[in-house]
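tool_call: predict_structure(chain=1)
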Amino acid sequence: MNTGLPQNGQETLAAALQYASRGWQVLPLKPRDKAPATKFSEATSNPAKLQRWFGQSYPYNVGVLTGLVSGVFILDIDGSNGAFSLADLEREFGPLPRTLISFTSSGCHLWFKCDRPIKSSVGKIATGIDIRGDGALVAAPPSIHETGAVYRWSDAPIADAPAWLIELTRKKPISERSLDNVRPITRSTGNSSAYGNAALEREIKALAAVAPGSRNNALNHIAFRLFQLVAGGELDRDQVRDRLIDACHANGLIRDDGILSVRKTIKSAFKAGMKSPRSRKLA
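tool_result:
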């Protein structure tokens, strides 16, 4: 399906005018750079102004303001970390719809419709994934990265963002809320004993309260002890994993290090703990 968007190699002016025709607010960026060459407040969809900027020989890149002002927001996927994090999110919440993509020097921008305020953030929802919403901008094709890579488009219409993605952009880290409001997520508790549940509550409470500087070590030690109880038949594996993730939201580790890092630590602790069963009978 042809989106009508300019492809790699066409003039920047044609691109800027095309974006403006979609209602996007456009401004020039410094050559081979993502920095604006003018004030944000001067961004426009006025063809005459765009002609003055881009109709000369000066090699501006072209930028688009994101958020409500242009009716679009961007899921910015940076490199392999971002790609792994995106795959992790889709496994947890469901696949993203097919949408317009602009390919950058080291990743891609996924474009979604925006009909409500979307807060910009860096690494908030996952490692290597940024949100470009209100108050932000992105370089758009056919801009040229400092490395010489040319931004280019995929060929798809802009989709509505799924509800789970909108929720992630709006959700405050649990550490900013009262720990009393942290809701345990338990998919299955069929294998959990009273002994195991008491240990789980004690360990999760301790992990949720750990201060920066020792959170990952605490996660590793506590997860190991809890997975020992899983191996001993006192706790359910999925219940332990989900409660550990809850606690890492609560202490801010996921916000600071990302979900991928936390899950890697949990996976390592799981492998070690399952080799050393512990139960009420063995305690």
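agent: The chain has two domains: 12-170, 174-273. Proceeding to next step.
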